[in-house]
Amino acid sequence: ALHFAQIEDYIDIDYWKSETINANTKATFAVWFNCDDISPGTMIFGADASNGGFYLGAIGGKLELGWDGTGWQSYGEQTGTVPAIASHTWYRAVVVVDGLTCSVYLDGELIYSKTTTNSSFTLDNNGVYIGSEGDNTHYKWYGELADFQIYDKAWTASDVTYDWENPDKDVFDGSSNISPTDCTALYRLNEGAGDR
Known about the structure:
Layout: E1 2-5, E2 11-15, E3 20-22, E4 26-35, E5 42-49, E6 52-59, E7 62-68, E8 77-80, E9 91-98, E10 101-106, E11 109-115, E12 120-122, E13 128-130, E14 142-151, H1 157-165, E15 183-187
Antiparallel strand pairs: 1-14, 2-13, 3-12, 4-9, 4-14, 5-6, 5-13, 6-7, 8-11, 9-10, 10-11, 14-15
């Protein structure tokens, strides 16, 4: 795992810069996380947009998703409940983007989803950062991250289950839906270097 000290620790992964999210967008983000302090806003990964963005992080003791509109706030339609999380506890989060709906899985279980009411929204030219909001100035991560993965395909519920039940393997090792070519980025974060 790689520890982020909430100061200048973040990784610009050069992904989804100026990306327009619309009904055809498919992606999956997966990461192990362990937060040192769940009280302040602290970002696992994120990307800004002119009005909102795309974020996953801990704020007020909960695992919050920002999806379009108003950042952390509820926007559009939400199903499920934002989960409480604890400090100094490892969790596996999988975020599946399937068109205008973004779903959050925690430890192999679907927890909640948000669907934007807009027909599209565009992220800014900074793109997605690991350990920051996407502009490297706000909500830096405070804790550990490991095995951060991005796929240009939406995982199914069975893919998420396989990932959770086989932490020593990659999802494409046991999925009929996902292949290695769907994997855009794979950062083990065990020595601070990605291998894809």
